[in-house]
Amino acid sequence: MTNLLHLDASILPADSSVSRTISAAVVARLSGLNPALKIVRRDLVADPLAHMTLASLPPAHPASVPGGEAARAASAAVLEEFLAADIVVIGAPMYNFTIPTQLKAWIDRILVPGQTFRYGPDGVAGLAAGKRVIAVLSHGGFYGEDTPYAAAEHTGSYLRAVLGFIGIAAPEFILAEGIARGEAQRAASLEAAHGAVAALTL
């Protein structure tokens, strides 16, 4: 059994969100390739996690403190979902140059010492190697290396750093950019993103 965890963090509804549209297409594509996929869906906007506090950390976190049992249980469930997943699909729009706060709250639940990484004499070791992560990024403008705003791109760069820290060295990115630059550009970006989805394999 292969487990797939599907996350969305766009505040927009599905019919107007590029990241939600493309992340759903990714899941549909992988499900078509393997109908036996077990899919767990977590909408981080419809069912948001509170911002991190000591009381809301998963019980496995060494800094976790007693109290707030419901919040700690919710955090533990998030961590368990991630640890059980073989494939993780993340819909991550860019908001103010970085990921949505809803997605950051989720990340704060999965970066747990002893569970997804550990420190040792040789530095940090990621413990989540072997998971496949496909992140769908949507940008209103253009943030490539050859653009004036390259230094402001903290969506893909942040996710790459976080995932690499826990041992996922080669996350896959599907990017739709320039979606606020007019209908023609939005359509072209969606077409390119759907083309990347169609090329996915298992």
Automatic annotation (TrEMBL):
Chain sites annotated for binding FMN: S10, S17, V18, S19, M94, Y95, N96, F97, S138, H139, G140, G141
This protein's UniProt keywords: Flavoprotein, FMN, NAD, Oxidoreductase
InterPro entries: Flavodoxin_fold, Flavoprotein-like_sf, FMN-dep_NADH:Q_OxRdtase_AzoR1, NADH:quinone_OxRdtase_FMN_depd
Enzyme's top EC category: oxidoreductase
Cofactor(s) annotated in UniProt: FMN
Similarity-based family: Belongs to the azoreductase type 1 family.
SUPFAM superfamilies xrefs: Flavoproteins
Organismal lineage: Bacteria, Pseudomonadati, Pseudomonadota, Alphaproteobacteria, Acetobacterales
Biological role stated in the UniProt entry: Quinone reductase that provides resistance to thiol-specific stress caused by electrophilic quinones. Also exhibits azoreductase activity. Catalyzes the reductive cleavage of the azo bond in aromatic azo compounds to the corresponding amines.
Catalytic reaction equation(s): 2 a quinone + NADH + H(+) = 2 a 1,4-benzosemiquinone + NAD(+); N,N-dimethyl-1,4-phenylenediamine + anthranilate + 2 NAD(+) = 2-(4-dimethylaminophenyl)diazenylbenzoate + 2 NADH + 2 H(+)
Protein name: FMN dependent NADH:quinone oxidoreductase
E.C. code: 1.6.5.-, 1.7.1.17
Species the sequence originates in: Nguyenibacter vanlangensis
Cofactor: binding details: Binds 1 FMN per subunit.
Domain Flavodoxin-like fold: 3-197
Self-association and partners: Homodimer.
